Every structure is written in structure tokens, then in C-alpha cells.
Amino acid sequence: MNTTMRWGGWGDPDRAATLSDSIRGLLGQALGVEAPGAPIPADLPLEPCRIPADVLALLGDVSTSHADRLSHLRGKSTPDLLRIRSGDAADAPDAVARPDSHQGVLDLLAVAVEHRLAVVPFGGGTSVVGGLVADREGFAGVLAVDLSRMSRLVSLDPVSRTATFEPGVRGPEAERLLAEHGFTLGHFPQSFEYATLGGFAATRSSGQSSAGYGRFDELVVALRAATPTGTIEAGRAPRSAAGPDLRQLLLGSEGAFGILTELTVRIRPVPEVRHYEAWTFEDFSEGTAAMRAVAQDGPAPTVLRLSDEYETAIGLSRPGALGSGAGGCQLLIGFEGTADDVAARQSLAADRLRALGGEPLGTGPGDAWAAGRFAAPYLRDALLDAGALVETLETAGFWSTLPTVYETVREALVDALVEQDTPPLVLCHISHVYPTGASLYFTVTAAQGPDPLAQWDAAKRAASDALAAAGATITHHHAIGRDHKPWYADEVGPLGVAVLRAVKSTLDPTGILNPGVLIP
Amino acid sequence: MNTTMRWGGWGDPDRAATLSDSIRGLLGQALGVEAPGAPIPADLPLEPCRIPADVLALLGDVSTSHADRLSHLRGKSTPDLLRIRSGDAADAPDAVARPDSHQGVLDLLAVAVEHRLAVVPFGGGTSVVGGLVADREGFAGVLAVDLSRMSRLVSLDPVSRTATFEPGVRGPEAERLLAEHGFTLGHFPQSFEYATLGGFAATRSSGQSSAGYGRFDELVVALRAATPTGTIEAGRAPRSAAGPDLRQLLLGSEGAFGILTELTVRIRPVPEVRHYEAWTFEDFSEGTAAMRAVAQDGPAPTVLRLSDEYETAIGLSRPGALGSGAGGCQLLIGFEGTADDVAARQSLAADRLRALGGEPLGTGPGDAWAAGRFAAPYLRDALLDAGALVETLETAGFWSTLPTVYETVREALVDALVEQDTPPLVLCHISHVYPTGASLYFTVTAAQGPDPLAQWDAAKRAASDALAAAGATITHHHAIGRDHKPWYADEVGPLGVAVLRAVKSTLDPTGILNPGVLIP
């Protein structure tokens, strides 16, 4: 695998997706897609670097090359990709620094404070919420701090089952390093192949196996961050009653409070067996009830994912077979562990699902899902090429509120796009469950209108208003960035905002860290 | 049960413990206890209330009665009880207010800001870390805000399995209210019979069934607090990626950031079956390894508790049978749930424990433990009467550090008390486990010296220094209060302290909330 992320789209260019005839047919017939979308340009011109040479000389390993600046331009949301396709590179950093130690990060921050540089911590560059775009006004330049040189496994404690990593290690490399010792982290979000552990922590990432392994914020037992006012560390024990949990203040801080330089995470033995199977339910309501029963009463699965009728019909759960879906609602359930344990849980779950109306579909769809689980972003690039607008959004709420959240968000998305003469396909699945609630993940596809950025913006605003009105959170695992700030401000309230600003002022008094991101 | 807490000791006077001859013999022979300790005085004189009548008139339901002020004097640590026995009532609040609503608390706080009253939120009054003693200097008076009138079950959501409570509801009443709907909270700390849900949240309490039900900070899914600058709320979903988790900033805030006025907690169906059984291991090291295996690889127990050789020998796990212990180390394991599920887990656990060197002792010791699980504080009063000094302390760390923490804390306690010519009995158990670590809970008994307060202070300081040097946390479930502040400051570091102060300044700019508690 080519590990360098393509700057104009997702991932490794050699793995680019092509659309099948059935998908092309669907785009034309169901969505009215007629003309191709704007292509990815061969190159983008950049403004000259604004950071003076004498300041650059203070930044250690730093690059102002065109290629480096372009590859640190924004994240990977559909709006980010549309801006590239429209030729807009205005947000590119002026330079890219690559520190190789905690002290190196502290030194960089000191220079940034003195010379008024906005600092954007950069891990895998996979943000989908504008988390990598800093305010430029009032700054002498924007410096991306690329953490790829800080990607070591610092230590591993097999007794406590913890491992300490530097923040720049990507998902596959972390798994490779742990596997040498017989362990796994078990954190597999869709961005897994490119995203870093520091990014997982800074954005409260949740992986596809979160039912079994937990969210990333549950996996972090200790952390260290470099801030403009010094070093902050937290986590002397798995849990403590020593005041507020400061780990949980730095997790989700999106580079606005400090740069995470070390993370100690819970690890587990590599499972003997991985078993994924699918079930079908008559409708989303019946499937949701079954899913809730498993989440609340067990047996605890490792993966649990329920597609609504639309997503099941379109077969998006199997990107390689789009358009070949079925009726009802498909539930995917997976178990990992020892052979005995997986067999016992699988059997108990089968009894429970059958009693709640489920029909087994066997392991075929489960294995297909597992094989294609990181492929969807490649498909998006191909759909954008073909003239479709495609984007996702997600939320979470308590079980009793989810039906309302589902209905109103779906309706808001449909209405907002129908109003623009681009009736969409809106698909949804539940992919992260808790005893008290779950997340909803929507995928929206429509024909690109004349101004696809404004088109999506209207739909996203309508959906965000709807989920907030229903009492759900603006994001379950994508974070706030710049895109979610208005709803975030409302969600935490004026006192919550005041608290965040007070913490920010303490750790970053001159406001150089990711300005414009997270803090309303 | 008499639900009014005895002001001079623990709990219901009708349930006072008496010491058996075997305990009295042990005190004399093993510890050199000769003379009885200072008794609980029949009454204590109080300074006149300092709050002027015109200010009192603004406080709604408020009392300055001798009985009310005395019953809100400090918490229930051994030093607190020794101060009472020495006739020291200097920390009594000037008045006790009893608000009955969130708005009522906001109104009280406004009066307190305007008239410079120090405010001590008061739930069950069971703090053992000085969490109920406010700085008096610079204040016109100290006002205890007793939350006993705010003890309602506000709502219950059986679908999401959550319940919303006011903060002043005590453990047994919360369980009674939930049981009417077929649910349980499952939070059973030793203080259960008197402590309140607000107190559990403010101190990050952990119950004896934490292995199965989780710590209280894991049970809270949403909360509301009244602060001098307004209302703050958090928790729209079980989990969210919307910035730092502000719930975790208010949990453990010990009344220094605000007064919790509403808590939404996770609830579970009342278990069909509760099964507790005991096992014996050759030594603490073997028992700890077995305990870790169960904590890391399952099957998940509801209760898991391992006594060291000393605690096993003394039989403190069965307060009614003190002195009748045995050799080796006793492990208690409990399962709650459906009959099938309990049977399955019990059988798997038995296989695992046997393979790791355990010998089964049957359900007798388990049932005895369950019957006496809230009785230890009664025993302490009787021991203090008899002239013994008895107190507990606790910590937590990662599994690989626990042996060092155990050895060095034990040694520090023994050395510090031997140096004072009062060689102690030091007992220890592990009673809260996580995949990555566990807590250690020490019980120390010695003959009272001439100045038992100074005597314990020296032992506690030595133990706290030792556990901090070994890298453990200053408290796993007792909180910071006033007693742990020096070690807490070191644990969170200067930047952590600065963050806490910044949050405090934002929510409580005039510093009226529990001044002197928590914030270093």
C-alpha cells in the first residue's frame, strides 16, 4: 500500500474505485445525474509562503515545498474535496514542520508564540469537519505541525495490558507494532488506514468494533500534551477519584488546548477468532429493538451494525456490490475472542435475534463487509467524478429519542435537497451502541447542482438543526472542527463555552493553537 | 432504620456495634490497647451563628438550630470523629439551608455571593477526606446547603434504561424508587445507607459491585449543576465527540465548581439471582494474578474482592466474626443477573480460578460478607471507644505497579506507627478492578497514642508519600477534600492546577463554593 495520502482525494491512487454499470445506471435513473463533476486538478497554485526565512530557520525540520503544503491542505470532507475540485487552495499552510520529540513540539510552540504563527496539529489529515483549517487573520502565517516523525511505540506493559505510543503512528502501523507482542488495539474507524492515534484521541474517534473494544476515549488510560504554557500529563491509574478527569478534558480538544505527544492505551490479546454474520429484520424499528436488546442484555458483540431499509436496499454495506441489495433491514453482528467464547456468544446472540424476529443470512455478507470496510472513501472520489454529491453525517442520542432523530433528520435532508431540485438517496445505519443509546450515521447522495458546496451546506444545516431540535448531539465521532461550531455552542451552552474558553486561555493564552477550531 | 445520621459517630445509634471478647483480647494482646479512648461527648458547644438575621431571612428554608449545625459538622473520617471526641466543633456551619429546587439553589448562591457566605453542599455527610469543611477566613459565615429536600425521582426512561434523580436522594431510597419499576442502580459503596447520589457524583464514588455495575462516574449519562454564574448542563447522548466531555469535568468537582441539581443515571433490571462465593489462594501474589486474569479475560463478575494474608487472617471481611480468620488469601467473587447467565459465568470463573491455584470455599463467606457489607463504620465507633485508632486509605494504579505500591505503602504505615510506639495491624484488599489495573484499600488499626490526630496524620502522610512515589493516584474513590490536596497538586501538576483554577474562576468567580476543598 502506498502510505502517502493523495492530496486531491482519498488514499492511494492505485486503489481508486471505478463505478460499475449498475451504479452509473442508478445515478442517472434515480438521482438524475447527467454531467460529470469537476475533476481533481492536476495541480493547484499556492500563495507564496508568508513566514519569513529567519523564523523558518527556528523551526527545525520544516518544509515550504509546494508538495508538502498541498498535502496538508484541509481534511477529507466532501466540502474539502469540492473546494479542491473548484481550484481553491486558500487554506494551505505556509509551512510544514516535522518535530520528532515532545521537547521538539514545545520548542516549536515557543517559536510560534513569539512570532505569531497559527499552529495546526496534523496527524493523518482525515478530518471531515474542517479541523485542519486555522484562522489566518492576525497571524504571521500558518504552520502545520506534522507528527509523522513521532510514530514510535515507546513502551508496552503486558501485565497491565497497556502500550505507550507517540501520537503520529497510523492505525495499521500501531497494529503491526502491537502484533509483534501478540496484542491489538482494536480501533478500526473508516479512516483507519491513514488516521493516527493522536488524531483518534484529539477527536474522540469511534471505531467499527466499538461495541467490543470501546471508543478511543475509553482506550486512553494516560496522556501527555505539549502546550504553549508547558507540559500537562494525566492518568496515574485506570480510574481515580482525584478530582475531575483531566484526560477527558484533553480528549476531544482537537489541538486547541495542546498537542498530544504521548498516549497510553489499553491493549488486548490478538483474538483467536473473528466471526461476522448477518441477519435480516422486517423493518428498521424491529431491527433497532433487536439491536437494543443485545446492547442492553448481551451477549456483548464486537461489531454491531444495522442498516435501514434504504441502505439495505442499496447494498451500501457492500461497496463492491452497490445496487444489489435486498428488502428488510440488514444487521451485521461480529464476535472476536477465543474460539470457545466466540462460539458461546454467537449462539446466545442467535437465540436472542431469532426470538426478536431476525432471520439469519450467514457469514457471507459479514465477510463482504469486513473485506470492504475501509473502501467507502475511494468510492466517494469516483462518485464526485461522475457528478454525484455524496457526504455523510452522524449523531447520537438515547434509545428513546432515536426514532424521532432518525425521522426528522432524514426528512430535513430530503426536503433541503428536493427544494434544490436534486432529490437525494438518504441511507442510514446504527453502528455504535451503548446500553443507553446509539449513534445514527447517514449517507446522502444526490446529483451535483450548479454550486455543490452551497447545495450541501443547506442540507447539512437543515439536518443539524433537526438533530439538535430532537435533543441529540451534533457529532458522535467526527468531532467539531469548524463545521459544527454553531450547534456545539448551543449544545454546551454559554457557561460550557465560557469554561472551554477559560481552559484555552490557560493553556494557550495567545491563541495560536488551531485558531477557529472547536472553541465557539 | 433510623435515617438520621448520628452526629458524633456513624449511622443509627440503635445499630451500634459491640466488641466481642476475642476482639477485645486482640486489641490488648496484639496492639497494646490499654485505656479506652475519649468518648463521644453528650453535646458540643457552638460559637454563635455569624450570619446576620437579615441575610438569613433571604435564604428560604434555613435553620440555625444547635442540632442542625451539629449534624452538619464535618464528615465521617476518623480525624473528624477524633475532633468531635476532643470537643472541637470549630468547623460547624453557621446555618443550614434546605433548598427544594434547582432555582432555589441558584437563588441561594446569589445571596451567598452578595453577602459573602462560604457554601458547603451537603448530601449524606459521609465524606472521609475533609470535603465538608470550608475556609472561614474572608467570609461572613459558612452555610451548609443540605440537599435532603431534593430527593425525587424526576423521570424514568425504561427504553433507554436511564433515570433522572435530584441529588439529595440516598442510596436505599433511590433503589426503592427504581425497584418499583423493576430497575436497580447497583451502586453500593460502604456509605450506601446514608450517602446521596449527588455525593456519589461529586466525589467519583465507586461501589462494592463496581466490577459489574461500574463506578458512579460511569453510571452518570447527563447532569445539571447550579453555579454562581448560572446553570450548566451536559449529556445529550451516551457518548459524543462534541469536544471535551464536560460531564467528566463536573464529576469529581466536590462542590467547588457548582452544586449538582439533577443526575441522569444508567439503570438495569433488578437481577433475578445474586450469587456470592469465596475462594482461597496461597498468597496475595497468587490471588492478585487470578484476580487480574478474571478482570482481563473474564467472565465479568459483579463483585470481586481479594484480601491480603493479614486481612484474611483477621477475618475483617466478616465484621461479625473478627478474629476468626484463616490462612492464605480470600477472594470473594459475586455474580448478578439472570439465573442462566449467573450459572454460566460462575462455572467459567470457577474453571479459571481453579486453574490459577484457587480452592473453593463455597457461598458461606460470600453471604456473610454481603450481610455485613455496610457494617464496618459501626465497628469503627466501638473501636475508637475501646482506645484503638482505626482508619482506612485507598489508592489505585496499573497492575504492573501494584505490588510496589502495596509493599511500600504497607511499610510506610508500619514504620510511621512503630516509630510512635504503636505498632499497627495493616490489612489490605483489592476491591475494584479494571482491565489495566485496580485499587488497593488499606485498613490500619493501632493503639491510640497520646495525640491520636497527630499520630494518624504522620501515618497518612507517610503512606501518601509512598503511594505517590510509586506512581499511584492519591485516591481511587474517596476524593480529594482538604486532606489530599498536597498530593493532588503534585498529581495533576502546575498546569493541571492552573486549569482547575481557571474553571473555578469561570463558574465561581468570587470563590464561595466549598472554599479550601479540592482546588490546590
UniProtKB/TrEMBL annotation, chains A, B:
InterPro entries xrefs: Alkyl-DHAP_Synthase, FAD-bd_oxidored_4_C, FAD-bd_PCMH, FAD-bd_PCMH-like_sf, FAD-bd_PCMH_sub1, FAD-bd_PCMH_sub2, FAD-linked_Oxase-like_C, Oxid_FAD_bind_N
Q: Where along this sequence does the record place binding of FAD?
A: 121-127, 203-206
List ligand-binding residues for substrate. 380
Membrane-crossing segments per the record: none
Q: Does the keyword Flavoprotein apply?
A: yes
Which Gene Ontology molecular-function terms are recorded? alkylglycerone-phosphate synthase activity; FAD binding; oxidoreductase activity
Name the GO terms of the biological process aspect: lipid biosynthetic process
> What positions are marked as the site Important for enzyme activity?
305
What are the positions of the active site?
A: 441
Q: What is its EC number?
A: 2.5.1.26
Listed A to Z, the keywords are: FAD, Flavoprotein, Oxidoreductase, Transferase
Which residue numbers delimit the FAD-binding PCMH-type domain?
89-270
Q: Which cofactors, by name?
A: FAD
Q: Which domain of life is it from?
A: Bacteria
Q: Check the record and name the PANTHER family matching this protein.
A: ALKYLDIHYDROXYACETONEPHOSPHATE SYNTHASE, PEROXISOMAL
Family per UniProt? Belongs to the FAD-binding oxidoreductase/transferase type 4 family.
Q: What is this protein called?
A: Alkyldihydroxyacetonephosphate synthase
Instruction: Tell me what organism the protein belongs to.
Output: Longispora fulva
